[in-house]
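Good morning,

Attaching, inline, the backbone tokens for the sequence recovery test we're adding to the shared suite. The designed sequence is right after.
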């Protein structure tokens, strides 16, 4: 996992800058040494990397109790579970799978205080597999709300994704929709909600981080 200083106003996530510079440099080298086709291919790769690390502004919905999606992607699972590692209680689990075409900047689902950040090494299985939640490398963020509830959201590495970046630490105050991290090259984010939450989404729905309302905390 990487923790770095993050600029909320950057249009490109700063984690992508080294990849962009390397690809652009190789493209220029290929061009000036006469390998035009290679330069074109590397140029296309450079633009793809820029697009992949895009960090768009979002219109965050306002309203009491609204819980927004922490990630862009597709909801692949919703179920009641007993979360035994961090919450140690029954809750609603919503899993969002992120492919390489989604925006990969993650956002806080609800305002509150970060009461724990837990990084765990693990495997790199395909993130859409159910066992990935437990076995894969992951970073768990525990949030306490002003209402005294707890919300847990977990960044999970995948088959290709090998770097999890988290920009918050214990004691930080966050707002709904605030950027808190990123997973490189596709993965998954699981969010665990209190049982009393009224869900507004279903399996198969597409989500937009910071925009899509998952449910309402009452």
């Amino acid at each position: 996992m990487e923790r770095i200083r993050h600029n909320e106003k950057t249009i490109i996530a700063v984690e992508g800058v080294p990849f962009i510079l390397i690809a652009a440099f190789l493209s220029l080298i290929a061009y000036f040494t006469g390998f035009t086709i290679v330069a074109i291919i590397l140029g296309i790769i450079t633009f793809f990397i820029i697009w992949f690390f895009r960090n768009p502004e979002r219109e965050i919905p306002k309203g009491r109790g609204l819980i927004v999606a922490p990630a862009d992607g597709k909801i692949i699972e919703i179920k009641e579970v007993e979360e035994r590692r961090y919450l140690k209680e029954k809750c609603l689990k919503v899993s969002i799978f992120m492919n390489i075409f989604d925006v990969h900047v993650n956002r806080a689902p609800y305002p509150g205080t970060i009461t724990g950040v837990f990084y765990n090494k693990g495997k790199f299985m395909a993130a859409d597999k159910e066992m990935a939640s437990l076995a894969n490398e992951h970073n768990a963020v525990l949030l306490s709300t002003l209402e005294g509830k707890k919300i847990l959201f977990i960044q999970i590495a995948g088959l290709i994704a090998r770097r999890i970046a988290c920009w918050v630490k214990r004691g930080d105050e966050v707002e709904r929709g605030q950027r808190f991290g990123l997973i490189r090259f596709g993965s998954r984010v699981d969010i665990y909600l209190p049982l009393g939450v009224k869900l507004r989404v279903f399996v198969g729905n597409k989500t937009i981080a910071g925009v899509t309302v998952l449910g309402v905390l009452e």
